[in-house]
Amino acid sequence: MDWNTLFYDEHEKPLDRLVSGYSRTAIFRKIAFVGDSLSSGEFETRDATGKAGYYDMYDYSWGQYIARKNGITAYNFSRGGMTAKWYMESFADENGFFDRDKAAQAYVLALGINDIAKMEIGEIADAELNCKKESFIRYYAEIVRRYKEISPEAKFFFLTLAKHDDKNRPKHGKELSEAIRALADYFGAYLIDLETYGPCYDDAFKKRFYLHWHLNADGYILTAELVDSYIDYIVRHHPGDFQSVPFIGTDIPH
Q: Which of 84, 131, 147, 248 reaches 20 to 30 Å from 139, CA-CA?
């Protein structure tokens, strides 16, 4: 066996293969998922009059699927309809998500789709400390800084929007993904670029993996496979970055 070629093929692209069994996401014993409905396992219903209902069912979230498969503890720091502004101004503090006893070794951020319907995306300069501009980038950056305060050595993974065809692409979706790429560069975070490497959310995809305007159970499992495999790819291709993960959040000198 040539282990170097098997695990660290320099020509491999993210999501060239989906992992089975334990992935290298399992090096994190505590991981937090910060997001909106799609991070919360939200299911959408219709009553007899056609009125929509929305239910966050966290056991179905892709973060919990990843956690159960890898035997790790996962926090759902998420809720349907969540925006970065709401998260920073009240939601996180009200729920104790910045408490030090909930500090994680890794944070996966999947926010933005609700923000771009309510405020401008902003410029990367809005990520600067003490910026007062009302923008998605400003509030996203504030979230990252708060978690860096309680877990300074934690690893951060930022998700772009998924890939869409022209018919199904949300308004300003491409601009949102560009902003998240810029934020990943700014903070030195790892990018999970589903817009570039993930499946296309076209009509055929939605017929298989959606329930109304949110994912169905199979769709959340697929998302878990994609995110888990992407993190596995990142860890395999940057082994030196993750050698000290077991010591994150401990007092052990390293």
A: 248
